[in-house]
Design goal:
Elements: E1 4-7, H1 18-32, H2 39-55, H3 63-74, H4 79-91, H5 93-101, H6 109-118, E2 122-125, H7 133-142, E3 152-153, H8 166-176, E4 183-187, E5 202-206, E6 222-224, H9 226-234, H10 237-240
Parallel strand pairs: 1-2, 1-4, 2-3, 4-5, 5-6
Helix pairs in contact: 1-2, 1-5, 2-3
This protein binds magnesium ion (MG).
Length: 241
């Protein structure tokens, strides 16, 4: 019986193309730090250190530590100078991306989450833990789903692994105290979200912003567009899955 529903954020609960977001995000943060780090060098370091974080297997290192250790080896500006610039970026320029991308909350997203919480399910925002918590809370505001009593929001400040590493899901389940078979993972990405099915979680693929490299052969238990997902949840479908 399902007791916990985990939702991916980007392209699942918050409706935008991830590649468009990534492009605008990298442009904006590169512009912000341009007075400190040369733009081409910065963008290269950002991508390389993100990759190092995604590949990390060391259980003693949080994602933020892996990222920062790798990143500040690649740029000549010290951490105590650049970190406040990053923090300022996430409080200001980052919030503007909503308008650049034209993101609007889906009218039913919040209602669906409130329904699940009211019915007693644990609800987790299982977004890839590659961003600081401020950047995740901000994207939740874009989707109109901020401020609900979530059981957990995974972010780079607290997690030790990233999707598609199955250890990300093992760590998440350990934190919330649920067995795989008690959980439903909802996401738009075959490689990063539906892969959780390998551990025994039930999976639901949301196809509006589908991402699929073809690498993951594990099929979702259910699939539909977002509107049908909402209907499924509101008609108590999760109970019967
Ligand atoms: Mg996604």
């Amino acid at each position: 019986m399902i007791r916990c529903v985990l939702f991916d954020l980007d392209g699942t609960l918050v409706h935008f193309e991830y590649d468009d977001f990534l492009k605008e995000y990298i442009n904006a943060i590169t512009r912000t730090v341009a007075t400190f780090v040369e733009p081409t060098q910065f963008a290269k370091a950002l991508l390389a250190s993100t990759d190092a974080m995604i590949r990390n297997q060391d259980p003693s290192l949080k994602n933020s530590q892996v990222f920062q250790d790798d990143f500040f080896r690649r740029v000549s500006v010290p951490e105590n100078v650049l970190m406040p610039v990053f923090e300022d970026f996430y409080r200001n320029e980052f919030t503007e991306l909503k308008n650049t991308l034209g993101v609007q909350p889906h009218p039913k997203a919040r209602e669906m989450l409130e329904f699940l919480i009211q019915e007693g399910y644990d609800v987790v925002i299982a977004t890839n833990a590659v961003f600081p918590v401020e950047a995740i809370l901000e994207r939740m505001r874009w989707g109109g789903i901020q401020g609900l009593p979530y059981t957990l929001i995974t972010c780079y400040d607290t997690m030790h692994y990233c999707k598609p590493n199955l250890k990300y899901y093992e760590e998440t389940l350990e934190l919330i105290g649920h067995k795989p078979e008690e959980c439903l993972m909802v996401g738009n990405n075959m490689d990063e979200d539906i892969i959780a099915g390998i551990l025994g979680l039930k999976t639901y693929l949301v196809e509006d912003f589908l991402l699929d490299s073809g690498a993951n052969q594990h099929s979702p238990d259910m699939r539909s567009n977002f509107n049908e997902l909402v209907e499924f949840v509101l008609s108590d479908g999760v109970q019967a899955i």
